[in-house]
Structures are given as C-alpha cells and as structure tokens.
Amino acid sequence: MASDLGISRQYLSAIEKGTRNPTVKLMVKMSNYFGVSEKKLFPDLFLQMNATK
Fold first, then answer.
1. What single DSSP character describes residue 3?
2. Would you say 5 and 41 are in contact if contact means Cβ atoms under 8 Å apart?
3. Which stretch of DSSP H or E encloses residue 41?
4. 1-53: pLDDT as tens digits
5. With contact defined as beta carbons under 8 Å apart, do 30 and 22 qualify?
C-alpha cells in the first residue's frame, strides 16, 4: 500500500499510529485508494479542525 501511495512504510506506519498526520494531497490519495471520504478515513483530524474554529 505504501508503494502504491508513493510513501515509505515508516511514514504509513506513523500515520496509522497517529504520530504523524498525512498531507492533504496524501489524504486524497488514501481516500481514493480505499474508496471512502477523507472525513470517514481520518475522523480525528476533522474533529480537531472543527474544535479549533
């Protein structure tokens, strides 16, 4: 999956663990890869964004 997305396995692992956040471009790639919306794939990121508004 990491190679399909053009990222390292370490970066993907860090995203999965929540220690790194993906770029917007990568979020779009990942949502297309899985066929779901960005909000559904990364709900915690969108909750954080809404909380700071």
1. H
2. no
3. helix 38-41
4. 999 999 999 999 999 998 998 999 999 999 999 999 999 988 888 776 556 65
5. yes
